[in-house]
Amino acid sequence: MRPLPAAAVLLLACTLTACGSTSQPAAPKSTVKASAPEHEVDCSDTSLSQADWMEHCSEDDGAGTGGDGGPSSDLPFGRAYAWADGLEVTVLEAKVFTDWDEYEEPDPKNTEFRIRLKVGNKSEASVDLSELSILVDGATNGGTAASSSFTKGSAPLEGRIASGVSAVKTDDNALEKRYGKDIVVTVQRATDDGFEVFPEFTGTIK
Description:
Layout: H1 6-17, H2 50-56, E1 75-76, E2 80-82, E3 87-96, E4 110-121, E5 127-128, E6 132-138, E7 146-148, E8 160-161, E9 166-176, E10 182-189, E11 200-204
Parallel strand pairs: 1-11
Antiparallel strand pairs: 2-3, 3-4, 4-9, 5-8, 6-10, 7-9, 10-11
């Protein structure tokens, strides 16, 4: 049998091995969309919802918090805190008290002020408001406020609040002027369920 010519051998080899072909299959185009820009929030905005604050502003990742995972300390006035059972509290403001009754008079050594707080019952049962108590400390150089009671406009934490109801209550205090007007308001709660987290709100007496 006669050998094939060299050109024919080369042609046959290239046919079997796709000789000289350098093309590669095109890479599939990515179907992943570019990430949307991160949601920007103003963490100093007191109208920011608690959910947004926890997602974008909280740095403690739920450590030392109540059952909802929200922060329990350094809460600004106007921000809500909720216990695991759904009872929610918000310190709205602390304001120098001036609406004295005819039998009352201010003490020149003290800053006498009224705290307004909102209590919302999102649990499934009524809650006894006597479970709650307020402790106020000076935030600048110490000092603890003395509990007081001013007659006009008083709405103390007492009685019960029904499921689904919110109410604004008051707590009256007097702090020596040497401790300044920046304060920390701790809302304590004593129940048979043993809640161990007491939220702390920070703000200024106006």
